# Entry
Amino acid sequence: MLINELPDDCLLSIFDYVNYLGDLINCYKAFYIHPSIIQKVSSIKQLYLQFCSLDDFKRDAHYLPNLERLHIRDEAPCRYYDGPVLEKLKIFELDFSSSRVTDMCYCFHFMDSCPILQSAYIFLGANRFYVDETTKHQCLQDLVIVFADPPRTDWNDLKRLLMKYPNLKHLGLRNASNLNDEHIKQLLHILPNLVLLQADICEEITERAAYYVQDYCKRHGRSIEFYSNENSYEIEYDWPQLSTKQEKISRGFDFMKHCFLKDYWDLPHFLIPVEY
# Structure
């Protein structure tokens, strides 16, 4: 008997054991399957992918119209993103690996195709990334960028990137050895809605940067919590709602609570909404 000749209830039982997204989508492409199986793919809201590039993902992204969180690893060479718009994606986490200084990362261009994206965590293993300066992303509020060792990103490129996110509230920059006090001073003017700035493992940042932040807030009537290097640990006491607990599944669809302070490798596999 051919698989297409199996009863629907039998097919449903079989596909309950298919847990790998690629296998499920390939089955969908290969032959007719029950609408319930198609719905199983299209209703996916969170994906944690370890062996899948953005190029691989974009080929099947149209099967995932309800995706709200994507965790993925990408490797050079990375290509210009021309896949479908992800209308519902709210959280994006990516590890970009590269061994050549000429490699370009297009993850931020991918984010331009996520109109309601609110939070992003990028482990950046390249010194070059594409920035479309003609597009502003109004929804992004939380951003963590960890620069792989050795970090080589140019400040002007980083500045052009951050100018795309005028409503950013929480920013974490880690292992950015090229970042200095004057750059922190410029950041305050670039990001008018910033309330939390963490610049950890940034060797060129000194106490002068903290003075810049305090003086700026006093003169402009703003409140910005700044943490860098020696006082970085204080963020856990001042923001107790931000978890550092290592867990595969976290309760609550909350990037700031479950992701912001953690190392990339400790990010949870799934964020379970409290109403579930």
